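Today's session is about reading a structure prediction critically. Students often jump straight to the picture, but the first step is always the sequence itself: look for stretches that repeat, for charged clusters, for runs of hydrophobic residues. Only then move on to the predicted structure, which in these notes is written as discrete structure tokens rather than atom positions. Here is the chain we will use throughout the hour.
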Amino acid sequence: LEHLFGLPGSAWEQLGRVPASVDMRRAVFFDTETTGLAGGTGTYAFLVGLGFFEGYDFVVRQYFLRDYHEEEPMLEAIAADLGRFGLLVSFNGKSFDWPLMETRYRMSRRRVPQGGAPHLDLLHPARRLWKERLGACNLQNLEAQILGVHRQGDVPGHLIPTLYFDYLRTGNVEPLADVILHNRLDIVSLVSLAGWLGQMVTDPLGATPDGELLCGDDLYALGRLYESRSMLAEALTCYETARERGVDAVSESTLLRQLSTAYKRVREHDQAVAVWQKMIEAGSGLSLFPYVELAKYHEHVTRS
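Below is the predicted structure for this chain, in token form.
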């Protein structure tokens, strides 16, 4: 936890376009389990988990809807807790969890808590950094492939609404114990994932939280993220190091094309030319790209 607090606010700004002034000590990590996966006014959040820091301890607090008529006091209790925090952190929360919570508050004619608060949705940077290499970027796959966590006997997400409806019909809460554990583990994983992503963008050439160096594919994806933020020096460092370590998820010609384009953007023409010539020597498929770029370079720069 001390490591997470030590990461600069600029890391969260780069990952989620939230203000660099955000403080992870005032962040609340949240996740919901619902009666449906499509959302809508008929969908209830029957389990809401909040994770937050108290000193260097991480606390998970969960709110369970025993029956529909108890929704209002549950929403009131959640709002009272949320008022203490200055940053929302979720996984796909911007598209699903938080809009659903806003709907439930409005349906209850209550003010939506944390209106306008910064929201860091970790799904979006995770996709940008790992989609090419991993394919699926759901939280459980990221746990296994990135965090090295393998859940045993975890309840599948598509079964969770059915388990809740069974509870409402029978009154037997025992099968929901696995759902409550699932929700708690999701929140704990959010903290680990935030720390991993924050470390990547803060020190891309340093060790990850597991002590390893980033592979070439991850450095290439991180370079793309930096370039989208107009951080071209950082992007070039990532591309060059990815070139040294090698890439698998993308072709080397794709990497060289991105590298040369970044050099061109910062007007490092000699380096760009060297990359284009390397692409031609390597016979990068049948691509005309390096030839066209060299022609434009000579027309506009050397005028020869």
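Discussion point for the tutorial: The chain has 13 helices and five strands.
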